[in-house]
Write a structure and sequence with these properties.
By secondary structure, this protein is an all-alpha fold. Among the domains are: 121 residues, no CATH class; 48 residues; 195 residues, no CATH class; 74 residues, no CATH class. It is 48% helix and 3% strand. It has 27 helices and six strands. The chain has a two-stranded antiparallel ribbon. The protein has a two-stranded antiparallel ribbon with strand order 3-4. The longest helix is centred in the N-terminal third of the chain and has 26 residues. The N terminus is likely disordered.
């Protein structure tokens, strides 16, 4: 018993020591990365010049991208796949760039074109499509945490929030250089106040959630919550940094101090959301755009532990010290003509895009990684919103540097980067899988095959209407509210969705124009992982759950579109000719002709009593191939 008692006392002491160490690790102030570590950390420095690898007897590579990928793959004894069939390539490229399937005529014309530049012409045509801005604008709206209501309990609507969405689409379609796109979202109203597009793009600052219906101290807390939303989104969207973690204390892992955080708050604290009349698009008619109303500099204290009742000093405004010289002094980036704004946002905008002395190199890395992610399903840096010390390291660091350098060398031209990425052999390869290569690289980090990817919820909805021939391709303007079941509406804390909407051409617009209410997403979108837009989201969750299949089987909208699909086919072909019916349906839904086995099975189905063309069209909507792109 004596020995046992001593053992217990020793054990208690060990446990107490462990708890003390744990408390120290959790609560002790952390200085982040040292200045020496900052200079060596891969994402913080200027872009490096890298030499393109050279391979002897290389018959696979098409451009520089492939040579970087091939070198790493060969180091593990792997050879990537050869090119995919042209029927699959055009479908892949079309969904990637415009989010819509190619027509039968487009596929057949591409296959028949035997010229060496047939694929280049395809890419150019897709990039010139107005649907390009809709497709890639949706990607950016995730990052911009765009919503059309305030969020939280009241979740009041923002009737003019759609003007920011339209501005993003227009900017992308125009091929606006990305550095300009960034500057105008931060300070377009200051940099080019006479340009409606520049003013409207500052809707980025107001795109996030906002606490409303508060007074007194709570109102001040709500103001700082809004500042946190803007600062956090700015850090995540443009720099891939979790700046918001420094609101209450120095960042635990990255070289971002609490002073850095509140200096960034200083750019926005004088301002507030507001409205401004602008000319909307080509019509020239005026609408009220939701902007940002900047203001003159005001006292900007540091809040100890993020508490509005513990204010210290006046920090003014400034940028991240780790990404600039002069301890974050922003004055070098403020033009004389822009000093009149008072809030310094123009300086922040120029610092963000300065590749020499500012954050421009990191900005370039982050955006080319986002492009890569949306073309391949995963970024070279998997954590595309976190380029900090706890984020994933790049799988192909030299390739990332080369891509970022190429973006800057070509004037921040995003469309050119699409051409470069999509022209590569690694993009054009097939999906073939084999056990040997999988055993070496089960996660496909070496990019030896193309991984089939499920479309986003918005694109699945658009594809249903596109196949059915009901898609309303009208662009721009106020958002629409399609039919939603009463049961779904009643689940929200605020029943602010119209009941008994009758779906029709007015609501059958592309999904980017569907109203984005934060407290109640359209159930079709929610099931297919469309985010709630409460925070910047560069990577969507990707789930595979039974409710997705049930949605495609039972949803009123899906079944209705299947009926319209059948009606379209009946108008196009002789319904007594079953093969023609099957051919037309497969081309409309899957952009290819059916195989002989598929023709046989489909014919047997249509010959059964009680079956119909409507049921057959509905079945095509539920196929994996309809929702996935090889």
């Amino acid at each position: 018993m004596l020995v046992f008692g001593r053992f217990c006392r020793v054990r208690v002491k060990v446990i107490k020591l462990f708890l003390c160490l744990l408390l120290f690790v959790v609560f002790a102030p952390d200085k982040g990365l040292s200045s020496e570590k900052v200079s060596k950390f891969w994402s913080y420095g200027q872009i490096k010049l890298v030499e393109t690898p050279v391979h002897e007897n290389d018959t696979w590579s098409i451009n520089a991208i492939d040579k970087f990928v091939l070198r790493k793959a060969q180091s593990k004894g792997i050879r990537p796949n050869d090119k995919v069939k042209r029927t699959k390539l055009i479908r892949r490229a079309s969904y990637d760039l415009i989010g819509l399937a190619p027509t039968r005529e487009e596929v057949e014309a591409f296959i028949a074109d035997e010229s060496s530049d047939a694929y280049s012409k395809l890419i150019d045509r897709l990039l010139a499509s107005p649907h390009y801005g809709e497709r890639w604008g949706r990607h950016w709206l995730d990052v911009a945490r765009f919503g059309e209501s305030h969020g939280y309990e009241s979740d009041n609507e923002r009737p003019s929030a759609w003007t920011y969405r339209d501005a993003v689409i227009r900017a992308l379609n125009q091929g606006m250089p990305f550095d300009q796109f960034v500057r105008w979202q931060v300070a377009g109203d200051v940099i080019k106040s006479e340009d409606p597009l520049a003013v409207t793009l500052t809707g980025f600052l107001t795109a996030g959630s906002t606490v409303t219906n508060v007074d007194g101290v709570d109102r001040e807390k709500a103001t700082y919550d809004k500042m946190d939303d803007i600062v956090s989104a700015t850090g995540a969207a443009f720099l891939g940094l979790t700046i918001g973690c420094a609101r209450c204390h120095d960042h635990k892992y990255d070289p971002i101090s609490q002073k850095d955080y509140y200096k960034l708050v200083g750019f926005f604290l004088p301002g507030k959301p507001g409205h401004r009349n602008i000319a909307a698009g080509d019509s020239g008619s005026n609408v009220k755009a939701l902007t940002w109303n900047g203001g003159n500099k005001r006292k900007n204290p540091l809040l100890k532990r993020g508490d509005v009742e513990q204010k210290e000093g006046d920090l003014g405004f400034g940028v991240l010290a780790a990404l600039s010289e002069g301890d974050g002094n922003v004055e070098p980036w403020i033009n004389l003509s822009e000093k009149k704004s008072g809030d310094g946002r123009a300086g922040l905008a120029h610092w963000l895009t300065d590749t020499g002395n500012g954050a421009g190199s990191l900005l370039a890395r982050v955006i080319v990684n986002r492009l890569w992610q949306h073309h391949f399903g995963e970024g070279i840096v998997k954590t595309s919103d976190n380029f900090g010390s706890v984020g994933e390291k790049p799988s192909h660091p030299e390739l990332l540097e080369w891509l970022a350098g190429e973006l800057i060398r070509t004037g921040w031209n995003l469309k050119n980067m699409h051409r470069v990425i999509m022209s590569s052999a690694v993009y054009r390869q097939g999906t073939q899988w084999d056990e040997k290569r999988h055993a070496i690289d089960p996660e496909n980090k070496l990019l030896w095959r193309r991984t089939p990817r499920r479309m986003e919820g918005e694109i699945i909805r658009d594809s249903l209407m596109n196949s059915a021939g009901t898609l309303n391709r009208k662009m721009y303007g106020p958002s629409v509210k399609p039919w939603v079941s009463k049961d779904a509406i009643n689940t929200g804390s605020t029943n602010k969705w119209p009941v008994n909407v009758k779906d029709g051409p007015a609501t059958w617009r592309r999904s980017i124009y569907v109203f984005m209410r934060r407290s109640m997403r359209v159930p079709f979108f929610e099931v297919f992982d469309v985010p709630d837009s409460m925070q910047s989201r560069g990577v969507r969750e990707l789930t595979t759950v039974p409710t997705q299949a049930l949605m495609l089987l039972n949803n009123k909208f899906v079944r209705g579109q299947a009926n319209h699909f059948a009606a379209r086919i009946k108008e196009s072909v002789d319904v007594s000719d079953k093969r023609s019916v099957i051919e037309e349906a497969y081309w409309s839904a899957l952009s290819r002709s059916p195989t002989e086995e598929e023709v046989k099975l489909s014919s047997e189905l249509l010959a059964k009593e009680g079956q119909s063309i409507e049921n057959f069209c509905h079945i095509l909507f539920t196929l994996n191939e309809f929702s996935y792109v090889d």
